[in-house]
Specification:
mainly beta, single chain, 16 strands
Length: 216
Amino acid sequence: MTYCKPYYWNENERSYKDVILWRSEERKTDSFIFMKGRHLPFDSKDPRWPTTIQDPKDYDLIFHSEVLPERFTSYDVLPNNCPAPLVNAKVKHLLETLCLEDVQFFPATVVPAKPKMESFENHDYWVLNICSLYEDVDFEQSETNFREISKDKPPIQSGYKRVIFKELTGQKIPHIGRLIYSKSSIIVSPELVKIFKKEKIKGVRFTQNSEHGDRL
C-alpha cells in the first residue's frame, strides 16, 4: 500500500467531555498499561510497571457514566479520562478487519457515576489496546515550542507546536499506533480515516499536522 502522511485520533470532546469516567483509585488495574504500545500481558522489565504482567482475566475495567445508556450508546467511541479509547462492536469489527495485528480488545463495564441515577450495567464497549508504535516524525520540518524559565536564562525547548510526519511507503507501517515519542498520541492511516468516515463512526475526529499542538 502507499502510505501518505497519517492523522491523529482525537476524542470528540465537544460531545462528551469526561462523562465516562475511569476512577483509578477504585480500580486494581493500572490504566497506563494501555499506553505502552505493546500486546498485553508482557514483562516490561521495569519494577515501576509490574501490572503489565497482570493476567487480562483479572483486569478491573469498570467505567462510570454521568448519563444513561440510551444516550452514550449512540456513540461508537466513548471519550473518557482513561489513556485508552472505549469502542463498541462496530469499531472493534472494523479494526480487527483492517489491522488485527495492531489492536487488542478487553471487555469493559459501564455503570452509573452517581448513586441516585437509574441502575444499569452496560457491556457494549471494549477497551482498545493499541499494540504498535509509530516513530516517523520529521523533526527538521516540525515547529518547536520554547518555554522561558527565567529572564536571566535563554528559553528551553518544551515540545513541538506543529508536528510534521514523514511520507512513507511500505507494508509494515501500522494503520493505528501510538507515537513513540508521546504515547498518549494515537496515529492512524489515511485508509483507516476513510473507512471510519464512510461508516459514520461517532465520537472520534481526525486531525493532521497543523491542527495538533501537543507536546512530544
